[in-house]
Amino acid sequence: MKLVLASTSAYRKMLLERLQHPFDIARPETDETPLPGETPPATAERLAVDKARAVAAAFPDALIIGSDQVAHLGNEIFGKPGTEARAIAQLQRMRGQTVAFHTALAVLNTRSGRVQCDSVPTLVRFRHLSDDEIRRYVEKERPLDCAGSAKSEGLGISLLEALSGDDPTALIGLPLIALSRMLRAEGLQLP
Predict the structure, then answer these.
(1) What residues are labeled active site?
(2) Which of 33, 43, 58, 84 has the most other CB atoms within 10 Å of its CB?
(3) What is the mean pLDDT of residues 139-164?
(4) Would residue 24 count as lying in a domain?
């Protein structure tokens, strides 16, 4: 069966390459707006499944991987900032706080119709950052395309006091431990 990543994220592509199995990439067209009353983990899970389903018609005999991440502090959600000003504002709001990052993963078998879905939480405790530290970080790394405005795989690690979670790749955007388990359940041999 063909393996398809329903994402154009360079971070997810880089992570999936670690499994050393060929895969295609497809752009899912999905509305990422949270539904009224939907919890952040539920939003991430729904969007991961929606992304996989969005490309399913083009791949009738494939395992399609969808993933989504929602960062939140209480009910406040931190999406991709898109601009330096928003990245700075997000980091100012998160400094000294513990932010939950829920990374959801879905694997859709288009042959059988089976969908597996899991959510991998990571708790991230930010240091008490000065405005100057935040500005320097945003200027150097330009984290405008990642939820929460901090790239733990890069310079963003210097903003943190601690991380806790079951899979270090979840925070980057694709939980490879859960993904490997799901792909093995579909008959893909790893390693």
Answers:
(1) 68
(2) 43
(3) 95
(4) yes
